[in-house]
Amino acid sequence: MALRRGDPRNSLRGPLNPRDDDRGIGEPVTRWLVTGTTGLLGSNAAISLAEANDVTGVSRTAPMGAPVPFVETDISSAAGRSGLVDRAEADVVLHAAAIASIEEAEQKPELAWRLNVEASADLAAQAAENGSRFVYISTDAVFDGENGPYDEGSEPSPTNEYGRTKLAGERAVLEANPEALVARVNFYGWSPSGTRSLAEFFHTRLALGETVRGFTDTVVSTLYVGHLVDAIAALVAAGASGVTHVVSSEATSKFDFGRRIAAGFGFDPQLVQPALSTDVLAVKRGSDISLSTGRASGMLGAPLAGQQAGIDRLVTEFTSGRPAAVRQFAPQKAV
């Protein structure tokens, strides 16, 4: 396990140690450990949280030039994650690492179990032992999509290996650390690879003038990743724990979402054509896996962001260079 720093020539901000910058010597700073730093959520969280906190990232492969310190280790291995939370001196662990692809989880169920369940429970236990807050990123895929919207009291009913391992991870995390925050999410944004989110899928093809299919039979409460990170940080600050739905306050079909993407970027919305997921996808998804956000909004004192607010921020951060910023977190290619 190696602790490294990104190339300072690629830095997106000032000094890597917030105690040395203009926030002032001695000002309290929260130390965040973010796993899965080379992924969509992990990279965006590292960038946003580092504006006011110490952030250490964790990834199996070294990022190209991440502007935060990071640990290079394979947390699916017990040896690779041993003592990780203690060594990072983390106040908060944001556990975003996962086998998050539905198809990959189906193809590699043993790896999905090791990472989504075993590693999650171990890190949660480490956080509890060290007095650190722990945030486990779960998913709306713990539901079958037959009776959305779902609240936190709804009975989970996953239909695929991804949903099953994430649900088992929820339970293992809370058993190991009852004070953990389990955030069920669905999100989009700019990723290091440029291929990880629904928004990127639509944007890439629409920018080429291609016709693209949007599913009319799939309803989700997808939330822009920047709003998700903000909400998680606020929930941690509020002392939130237990299962909490952290998604958009508004549900949308993937077809309507695609049309909003087109309009937001000035593309022709008619390029997004209606389609049925059952005609395209090999692994079953739920039809309406929208989630109720009453618990989260009650703790935060305000509704979570709606769909148009998310698209507007996606466009704004695209214009300000967020895609290039997150690309610095892409894993280095083997030589």
Automatic annotation (TrEMBL):
InterPro entries (alphabetical): NAD(P)-bd_dom_sf, RmlD-like-bd
Listed GO biological process terms: dTDP-rhamnose biosynthetic process
Domain RmlD-like substrate binding residues, every copy: 32-318
Residue ranges, annotated region (Disordered): 1-27
SUPFAM superfamilies listed in its UniProt record: NAD(P)-binding Rossmann-fold domains
Any single Pfam family the record assigns to this protein: RmlD_sub_bind
Bias kind Basic and acidic residues: ranges: 1-10
Protein name: NAD-dependent epimerase/dehydratase family protein
Organism in which the protein naturally occurs: Glaciihabitans arcticus
